Amino acid sequence: MAPDSESSETEPVWRFVTPEDAVPPASRVDAHVQKGVSALQSWVRKMPAALSRWWTGAEEGVDGAEAAEALSGENGPQPASDALLERIAPAPDWSEAVEALDAALEPWMEGADGVPALVLGARYHGAPSIPRRWAEARGWTIVDPLPRDDLASPDAAAADWLAARVQDGTPWVLPRLEQCHLRTPRGLTFVRRLLDRWAEGTLGRGLIGCDPHAWAYLRHVWPGQIPHCLVLHPFSADAFARWLRALAEVGRSKGAAPIAFRMAGEDDPVLPTHREATDGDGSVPPADDIPTSSYLRGLAVYSQGHPGIAWTLWRRSLLVPPDAPPSEADETSDRESEVEQTIWVRPWSDVEHPRRPSGFAQPDAFVLHALLLHGGLSADQLSPLLPTDQYAVRHRLHGLRTAGFIVQDDAKWQLTPAGYPAACDILRHEAYLPDPYDT
After folding, report:
1. Looking at the domain that runs over 114-226, which CATH code has it been given?
2. Fold of 362-429
């Protein structure tokens, strides 16, 4: 599913809503349609020059592959340095997301029942846990998942864990429910008992976070009802425009030149200027007043509106001229310069992200599906869940890592930020994933 990339109303960038309100049906854009539209737009832009070459008999221009090579060659723009990225696209502090979650949870917090609330959010390598950060801000107890090796052990481990939660009367947050199960009969015992006690209200007031696809699976093995469920509303292209511009302003020193983000090879603006983004007085203008680029529409569709995924891809897209001085980002003056510093942005079609490998087979889909539902697994934990021998599983893991879908963190294999939406797209095509927000 893709977020709504066109909005005529001014809305907060960060909003937590009920699952049924997360993505309006009219905004479900097929990524393949978006890709076709982008290709058509590119063809239209190039047509005048092509006709001119044909009419004048000039030498034919370079093809798409040569153009891409020129863009990334020695004489073309180069990837922004790590130091510059820390200034123009710093890591978000997620404080606005915590504030938005706090506002959305206010009715539940004021309620008298003890049923915990559920917050759905994408889980991939490096994904921030908004419920965890909310718990830290509130001073609530953070409950880490039971070690997976204990999930398949006799019920005593699960019973002891649950008893500890009941005896501790402080409010609590379990940020990663998807890590509390294994997709085996014995590996589901713990999470079923946990959810039973949760729904009964006997675990006290608490908040649970879970990946939406993992929750869609758990709904099939646990038939209980959830009265309080929230999900981060997917960012639109307009929301990404405002958010990414705000990040760029965070790292800009007082007196430093404003930054203009423009499409490489076309010079079209990608983000609104500082003045457009703030109306000059710090207020956010209506969405219709902010130009939305084809890059941002592609970013919103591919990332499924997840800001953490989009932020990773955005940083990969930023380029600087090959002759740009290393100290360009540090230039300051006594007064704000009127000369903009230009940062080039790769066309969306040139942004590196995982694509379905030519030799992709059903066993690869099984691996991606298992990693998605469990929020990451070691090779030893993964093998018993698949109809494939251990050697073949390891072979598939290394192939998917080469393709950019997954990464190994210590012993655990997890989806990468760019690999998460790519894996979801493949699994939906294979009919392995239902609508994660159909609760």
Report:
1. 3.40.50
2. Arc Repressor Mutant, subunit A (1.10.10)
